[in-house]
């Protein structure tokens, strides 16, 4: 065998695993079917702006180990995500906080906001059974109708009553004047873009791009004893138990000769009629300046359109409802039998992971593999 490990996918999971394996003296080959490294965090420099090609990525974590780890590969700026919601031209602060409640109801004190929410959430009795009930029980019906329902139905292509409650619990609800979208101790954007950070993770590792593992499986398997697979788990098994559902996203990106299109990195369009979910203005992730500190005269914006995944599309979001969770459990059983393969990452584990969770999981799994089970970590 030429390599100890074949790593399928040069996204964060694959890059961290590759780095850890190499650091322990293992030989590694990374392949990716895309023409670049980085997976979904890939950024491209367009006239001084690091464009997030696969959608806005804001690094945030409460995990100090992960924060210290990523800081070995990039310096982070002080960007704090504070998206604005645009509901038919009315602007609201996100996440749901005193600025939002003031604009929605005219309330001024936290007590008044609490009373308003309590009055509206009374319609939900018992444990919320789906996203709609969960949202109303967190922030009341008015906010649900204007800021959640339309956006969620566009994003997921499903009625809010058919979606799991946990999705909306990602968003903080605060009775303070605080527009920070995340409850995270650490937050920022890697200076120089994510691609540079992933390049550092992969420094000295052989990477073959434009290489689809599943189309060249036998030849690639022959190169290495162990495989780390970060593509979709159902694709690995040729969809033999049926398709897992994913949401896909289409990005319409354009350069505009204006210095300031929307005054913020992210504006969410929360009505049902606007066809896109959000518009990202990339320069504001870096405060409108290039790496030399010069103001950039133009701007790059991306409109995001959500759609149901179909073969040939990029799968972006796992749809973790009951049907898919059951099907995933069956694929997981097949995966257990593939003793020489580790399934990891957002697609390999079919989990709605953020970047920090993917890194934490890649560190945990690579540590388990490489440190606990012998020199080459073979489990079988
Ligand atoms: P990926 O980045 O998907 O990497 C998998 C790689 O495997 C891909 O490069 C793919 O081309 C390759 N691959 C798949 N199949 C094959 C094959 N057969 N052969 C060869 N290669 C293959 N997280 C945050 O923390 N903050 C955010 O703000 C944030 N925003 C997001 C916005 C969007 C629109 C999306 C979709 C995700 C966002 N995330 C965010 C989540 C973040 O993107 C993921 O947690 C992370 O990038 C997952 O890394 P990964 O390595 O598991 O997967
Ligand atoms: N959401 C919403 N309105 C918004 C933003 C988010 O209703 O303006 C809901 C929506 O259901 C979304 C979920 O909150 O899927 C989680 O939002 P997040 O921003 O974490 O989604 P992601 O960045 O992963 O797309």
* Cα shape: globular
CATH topology of the largest domain: Rossmann fold
Alpha-beta classification: alpha/beta
User: How large is the radius of gyration?
Assistant: 22 Å
Q: How many structural units, i.e. domains?
A: 2
* Distinct small molecules bound, one entry per kind: flavin-adenine dinucleotide, uridine-5'-diphosphate
Q: In percent, how helical is the residue content?
A: 25-40%
**Name of the CATH class of the largest domain:** Alpha Beta
What is the β-strand count?
Answer: 16
Distance from N terminus to C terminus (CA atoms, Å) equals: 16 Å
Number of helices: 12
Average pLDDT number? 96
Largest beta-sheet details: 7 strands, mixed
Biggest sheet strand order reads 7-6-12-13-14-11-15
Question: What can be said about this structure in brief?
Answer:
By secondary structure, this protein is of the alpha/beta class. It contains 12 helices and 16 strands.
Helix and strand layout, with pairings?
Blueprint: E1 3-8, H1 12-23, E2 28-31, E3 43-46, E4 49-52, E5 59-61, H2 64-71, E6 84-87, E7 90-93, H3 98-105, H4 110-121, H5 131-139, H6 141-156, E8 186-188, H7 194-201, E9 206-208, H8 217-221, E10 224-229, H9 233-236, E11 246-256, E12 266-269, E13 278-281, E14 299-308, E15 317-318, H10 322-337, E16 341-343, H11 345-348, H12 355-371
Parallel strand pairs: 1-2, 1-10, 2-9, 6-12, 10-16
Antiparallel strand pairs: 3-4, 5-8, 6-7, 11-14, 11-15, 12-13, 13-14
Helix pairs in contact: 1-12, 4-5, 5-6
Bound molecules: flavin-adenine dinucleotide and uridine-5'-diphosphate.
């Amino acid at each position: 065998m030429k390599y100890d490990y074949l790593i399928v996918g040069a996204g964060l999971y694959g890059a961290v695993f590759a780095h850890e394996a190499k650091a322990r003296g293992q030989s590694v080959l990374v392949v990716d079917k895309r023409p670049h490294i980085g997976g979904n965090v890939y950024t491209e420099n367009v006239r001084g702006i690091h464009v997030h090609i696969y959608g806005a990525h804001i690094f945030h974590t409460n995990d100090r180990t992960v924060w210290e780890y990523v800081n070995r590969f990039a310096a982070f700026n002080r960007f704090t995500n504070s998206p604005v919601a645009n509901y038919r031209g009315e602007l609201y602060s996100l996440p749901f906080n005193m600025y939002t409640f003031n604009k929605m109801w005219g309330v001024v004190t936290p007590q008044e906001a609490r009373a308003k929410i309590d009055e509206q959430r009374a319609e939900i009795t018992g444990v919320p059974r789906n996203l709609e009930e969960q949202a109303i029980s967190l922030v009341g019906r008015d906010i649900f109708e204007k800021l959640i329902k339309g956006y969620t139905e566009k994003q997921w292509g499903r009625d809010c009553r058919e979606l799991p409650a946990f999705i909306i619990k990602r968003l903080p609800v605060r009775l303070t004047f605080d527009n920070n979208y995340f409850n995270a101790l650490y937050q920022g954007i890697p200076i120089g873009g994510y691609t540079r950070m992933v390049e550092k993770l992969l420094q000295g590792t052989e990477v073959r791009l434009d290489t689809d593992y599943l189309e060249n499986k036998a030849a690639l398997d022959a190169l290495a004893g162990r495989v780390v697979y970060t593509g979709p788990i159902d694709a690995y098994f040729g969809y033999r138990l049926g398709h897992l559902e994913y949401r896909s996203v289409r990005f319409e990106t354009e350069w505009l000769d204006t210095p300031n299109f929307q005054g913020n990195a992210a504006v969410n369009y929360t009505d049902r009629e606007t066809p896109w979910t959000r518009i990202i203005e990339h320069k504001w992730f870096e405060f409108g300046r290039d790496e030399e500190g010069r103001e950039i005269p133009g701007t790059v914006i991306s409109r995001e359109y959500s759609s149901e995944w179909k073969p040939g599309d990029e799968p972006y979001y796992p749809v973790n409802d009951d049907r898919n969770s059951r099907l995933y459990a069956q694929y997981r059983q097949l995966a257990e039998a593939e003793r020489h393969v580790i399934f990891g990452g957002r697609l390999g584990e079919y989990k709605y992971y953020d970047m920090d969770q993917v890194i934490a999981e890649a560190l945990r799994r690579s540590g388990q593999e490489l440190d606990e089970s012998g020199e080459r970590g073979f489990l079988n």
